[in-house]
Structure formats: C-alpha cells, structure tokens
Amino acid sequence: MRSYRPGMSTAPYDLTGRTALVTGAASGIGRATSVLLARAGAAVHCADRDANGLRETARLVSEAGGKATVHTLDVTDRAALRAAVAAAGPLDIAAAIAGIMHTSSVLDTADEDLDRVLDVNFKGVLRTCQEAVRAMIAAGRPGSVVTMASGAVDAAQPGLLCYSAAKAAVVQLTKTLATETGPHGIRVNAVAPGWIRTPMTGRHSAEELERTEAAMIRMSPLRRVGEPEDIAQAVLYLASDASSFMTGQILRPNGGVSMPW
Predict the structure, then answer these.
(1) Which among 4, 13, 163, 237 is annotated as catalytic?
(2) pTM exceeding 0.85
(3) Can you name the CATH fold of 19-250?
(4) What is the residue-averaged pLDDT of the chain?
(5) Among this protein's residues, is 163 annotated catalytic?
(6) Which pLDDT band holds residue 8 (cuts at 50, 70, 90)?
C-alpha cells in the first residue's frame, strides 16, 4: 500500500502519475480544485453539466501546465458517471464537489424541492463515490475520495433545510464509506467549507451579499471570508499522501466561524 512516512519523501503533495476525477469542475471550488490538482501533477478528469464552464476550466488547467479531460454530465446520471470513471482509467483520486443550492423555509419546502437537492447534493455524491471506489477496488489501487460537506451542518440556518440535510447525509456517507474501504487502502474524507465566494454564494443580490459577507467577516477570527482556492488546498491535502493517516474525517476550512468539539 502506498503511504507517506516522514523522511520518505520531500514532496508528499506531489500527485505526479495519478489520475483524479472532479465533479462540479465548471466553476467555483470544483474549478479551483481541478487547477490545483493538475499543478500538483495529476491528470484531471473534469465533470460537470456546464459545457462552457468545463471548457474554461480545461483552459485554466492547460495554462497551469496540466492536462484536463472534460466530461459533460449530470451527477444524477449514474451511467454517465460510470462512463467517465471508465474513461479515466485507473483512478487514484475522486473529488465529489458538484452541488446545487435551494432556499425555502421548512413550512414552504415542497417535496420536489427536497427531492431535487437530495438527488444532486447527496445521491450525486453517493453515485460518484460508488463508481469511483468500485473502480479503485477492481484495479487494486489505494486511493483517496474527498466529498464536499458544508459548515451548514454545524449550525441551523433559516431557509437551508434542503441543503443542510443533504450535506449532513454526505457527512454520514463519508464516515460510513471510510469504515468500509479502509481495508482496501482507500481513504474517504470530507471538506466542510465556511462562506466561500463562488457563483453559488453569488446568487444573492449585491446588497444581501455585502451584508452577509460583512456578518461572516465579523464572526471570523481571521476577519475574512474564503475563496475557492482555500478549499482547493484542503482537497489537495486530503487527496495527497500528506494525509495518509486520515480517513472518515471532516476538515473545516471556515476561518474559525465554527469550532465544533
């Protein structure tokens, strides 16, 4: 089993020779992760339903000296995910980042709203993990799976029932899968970001965005909000040998806004 030990390598973050699949790669955290993994040496397979965004991500990966293969797909489509995993060949890293946002009060949440968010934000992650892990086990390769949770699971927030419930399910998926894949040398960890400047948070009006970011900055000991690159760095750590003794963990890059025990 490949693993990092102090003194064995001067570059535990080096991903040269490894292959990664990143969903949600067309923008935001997924795009930043694709670029950073490529800079670390990985061959990156970028998946998203936004074809134009994927082309821009591939261009940025190329500018960074890396190579990106794009797969235009929706994570609600298992067959498409399976085909992308097969096309990637032996897979070492899977970063399940694709997600959507929905806002509604509990009393105003319709069944179809909850079903849609769960289908993408939880079941989409589950499908990605299943297809990636099956491929890793079949190839006899140790690997790293990184899921995307959220700081929303640590505190109740009005209007975020669908999103928070789906992300809480991702946390339980991460922990359970880690217990099942450890004997195969496959690690599974989650990143739970705080407020990050992405197209998803940019859905707010300019006035609401300014007000929300100001509140988050006041709450953070670091006095700032996050950027997609902050989360990409966390994904790189979990994908690399630097985190070889971590599995079933939730990494919280959130500027100190939340500090769970």
Answers:
(1) 163
(2) yes
(3) Rossmann fold (3.40.50)
(4) 93
(5) yes
(6) low
